Amino acid sequence: MRDQRLARLVRLMMELGRKPFRSVDEAAGLLAISRTQFYRDKEDLEKMGFSFTFRRERGAFQVEDDPGVRVDGLTLGEVLALILAVEKVPLTGDFPLAYRALLGLRKISVDRPGPAARLVALAIEAVTREIAGCGLDLLERLVAAAEEKRRIIVEYRGPESGRTRRLTVDAQGLVYRRGKLCLEILPLQGRALPRRLRADSIQNLMETPFLAPQ
Q1: SS3 assignment, position 189
Q2: Does the pLDDT value for residue 111 go beyond 60?
Q3: With contact defined as beta carbons under 8 Å apart, do 133 and 96 qualify?
Q4: Domains along the chain?
Q5: DSSP letter assigned to residue 89
Q6: What distance in Å separates the CA atoms of residue 141 and residue 115, rounded to the nearest whole number?
Q7: 26-77 pLDDT, tens per residue?
Q8: pLDDT for 182
Q9: With the C-alpha atoms ordered 56, 62, 68, 73, is the resulting torsion angle positive or negative?
Q10: What Rg, from alpha-carbon coordinates, does the chain have?
């Protein structure tokens, strides 16, 4: 229940960073919560150092930093701006840059106590799933396999068929194709498989001791 509440706070925080909400009803409607819950969540975020108020001159809510609450010297508003900036990196098609940015963000919240750091960690996990289609732990394993050109076994759910298969493939690299992160592969001899597997369809990964033949 605690993580569900934090996940809802993360979504509210990130949606506020993405667009200006014109009313409480608009924000509450997007998040599928009541007005009462919206104000409770607003109060909880303010206690963690993330404040936002309605500015009449702008006709929208505006994020305001609390300089007293910091994570690694950054206010929550500044951390949110970094997270949302990283979310846009895949538009360039540059996966190595996106991955390095994610690892940099992760350093902000690792081993930091308190609800603010936990909120940041959940926000980073959310944006990782947004730009990679999987969690950071699985992404790191995919990156390692691709860098080593390692033979791996993946549980892959086909985006069209919805059927999960266990595939043995040689990992070659990670690239963006049509906005989706894909693992480039070499199928074993005699197997008819696509050249790329979408990361958001890889359910699990198991390493083997073998490297792809050169």
Answers
A1: coil
A2: no
A3: no
A4: 2-132 (no CATH), 138-211 (2.30.30)
A5: G
A6: 28
A7: 888 888 889 999 999 988 888 877 788 888 877 888 877 655 556 666 777 7
A8: 95
A9: negative
A10: 20
Q: E-strand spans in the chain?
A: 50-55, 60-65, 70-71, 74-75, 150-157, 164-177, 180-187, 196-198, 202-211
CA angle 27, 28, 34 (to 5 degrees): 165
The Cα–Cα gap between 158 and 163 comes to 6
Q: Are 197 and 182 in contact (CB under 8 A)?
A: yes
Count of other CB atoms within 10 angstroms of residue 203: 13
Helix boundaries (H) for 110-170: 115-132, 136-148
- With H, G, I as helix, E, B as strand and everything else as coil, classify residue 94: coil
The amino acid that residue 170 corresponds to is D
Q: Reduced to 3 states, what is the DSSP secondary structure of residue 159?
A: coil
- Give the pLDDT of residue 190: 60
Q: What is the 3-state secondary structure (H, E, C) of 1-29?
A: CHHHHHHHHHHHHHHHHHCCCCCHHHHHH
Strand bridging mode 74-75 / 70-71: antiparallel
Cα torsion angle, 110, 115, 119, 122, sign: positive
Q: Phi and psi (nearest 5°) for 173?
A: 175, 175
3-state secondary structure of 38: helix
* 139-174 residue pLDDT tens: 999 999 999 999 999 999 987 777 899 999 999 999
Query: To 10 degrees, what angle do helices 76-88 and 115-132 make?
Result: 10
Residue 67 in 3-state DSSP? coil
